[in-house]
Please model this.
Amino acid sequence: MATQQPKTEEPAQRKTRIGHVLSDKMDKTAVVAVNRRYMHPKYRKYVKERLKYKVHDERNECGVGDKVLIEETRPLSKHKRWRLKEIIERAPEV
Model:
């Protein structure tokens, strides 16, 4: 009989994305645009794609134009599945 070693399960790596805040008008929610480029499988041409995510911002700390890091989480509402992890760069004050 082989002895069983205790399992040391690490938490799963969550998906992260970097994007820019488009709107912060909702309470505890921001809309973040994530741009990506990929090569089209058939036409072998680069295509730009922009996805918008609703992000949970607990302390309402991000503003329009900020560059932010978001992370995937459990569903928080009908459309919110991402959470603000950190603000990478603040938008310049006008």
Q: What stands out?
A: The longest strand covers residues 29-39. The beta strands are 16-23, 29-39, 46-56, 67-72, 80-89. The mean pLDDT is 93. The chain has one domain: 16-89.
